[in-house]
Design goal:
The protein is built from eleven helices and twelve strands. By secondary structure, it is an alpha/beta fold. The protein folds into two domains: about 230 residues, Rossmann fold; about 90 residues, 2-Layer Sandwich (Hypothetical Protein Yjia, Chain: A,domain 2). The chain is globular, with a radius of gyration of 20 Å.
């Protein structure tokens, strides 16, 4: 019997890691292995999950691929990782793969047709997590033709937006779309966004909404889609391309000192987001006098800070943030602004 794998995709800050954490907390004894692909060299998402304290969520069951985008390094990183998991004496019941927020899911799904794993693993389903408020605000367009027409009619507009292409590719590859952060939307807006997402995809795609990533694992797992068999039929901006890279995005890691004023840090993060082409900020900080580590996450102007766990014995209490932005953002200015 093939081991099912679920690919969880979604744009930066949509809530993929939060959804996975909820899935682990409600696994009901199912052995789940996680493969996490991060854009940047500071393993924030892996650290959030391995420090969750959930029974059965061991370090050996969470594998991080941080050497590049998972859809670009399939042969070098992803396939050997899958083989190690399925070759275990006690293999997992299910594999969950969290792609980076900038990954294209189609090349990843196609990799499941490689001879090394095709007979042993199947793609149960592809889940796209969508940031409800961001979509409602028109941050990402769902109609490529309308966007292109608008660009061609206005010379002041960018005629090529890789952000929209990545987002649309994620939607078109999905079996399930999770409209996350729905608690932040009024009921009429929620209905409109859900309808727009459904119109943007195949009628067979299920659109469900959630708050804080809380969604029944039975909805996400057990789709039985065998997606590797039908992936060629799913539309992509990048069909016909041999590969894909992220020349349109940059990432840096900013080291901070002790953070004595969380409100001031939040203001500095909002400032760099507003004045530079920053897409995402995430990391951990040390607050003097506090025994717990503070998690910081920002998408757009929304900044979230909370204490997630106690510092471990012997753990270096440092403050570091990953900053992801569009290519060309001023690394020096952003670093100086966050460190001031």
């Amino acid at each position: 019997m093939k081991i099912p794998a679920t690919v969880i995709t979604g744009f930066l800050g949509a809530g993929k890691t939060t959804a996975i954490r909820h899935l682990l907390e409600n696994a009901n004894g199912k052995k789940i292995a996680l493969i996490i692909n991060e854009f940047g060299d500071l393993g924030i998402d892996r650290d959030i999950l391995t420090s969750c304290g959930i029974e059965g969520c061991d370090d050996d069951d969470v594998v991080e691929l941080a050497n590049g985008c998972i859809c670009c390094t399939v042969a070098d990183d992803f396939l050997p990782t899958i083989e190690k998991l399925i070759d275990r004496a006690d293999p997992p019941d299910h594999i969950v793969i969290e792609t980076s927020g900038l990954a294209l899911p189609k090349p990843l799904v196609k990799a499941f047709n490689w001879p090394e794993i095709r007979s042993r693993v199947t793609v149960d389903g592809v889940v796209a997590v969508v940031d409800g408020p961001a979509f409602a605000a028109g941050q990402f367009a769902h109609d490529p033709d309308a966007v292109q027409a608008a660009r061609e009619s206005d010379e002041a507009l960018d005629h090529d937006s890789p952000l929209e292409e990545v987002f649309e590719d994620q939607l078109h590859c999905a079996d399930i779309i999770v409209l996350n952060k729905s608690d932040l939307l009024e009921s009429d807006v929620l209905d409109r966004v859900r309808s727009e997402l459904q119109d943007a995809t195949s009628s067979s795609v299920k659109v469900v909404h959630s708050s804080h990533g809380n969604i029944d694992p039975a909805v996400l797992l057990g789709v039985s889609g065998a997606v590797e068999d039908v992936i060629e039929d799913r539309w992509s901006h990048h069909d016909g391309e041999d590969d894909h890279d992220h020349d349109d995005f940059d990432t840096i890691v900013v080291s901070l000192g002790d953070v004595t004023d969380s409100s001031a840090l939040e203001a500095r993060i909002q400032d760099v987001v507003e004045n530079h082409a920053i897409l995402r900020v995430k990391g951990f900080v040390h607050v003097p006098g506090k025994p717990m580590r503070q998690l910081v996450q920002a998408v757009g102007s929304r900044v979230q800070q909370y204490f997630d766990r106690e510092w471990q014995d012997g753990e270096v209490r440092e403050s570091r943030l990953v900053v992801i932005g569009q290519t060309g953002f001023d690394h020096v200015a952003v670093t100086a602004s966050l460190q001031q």
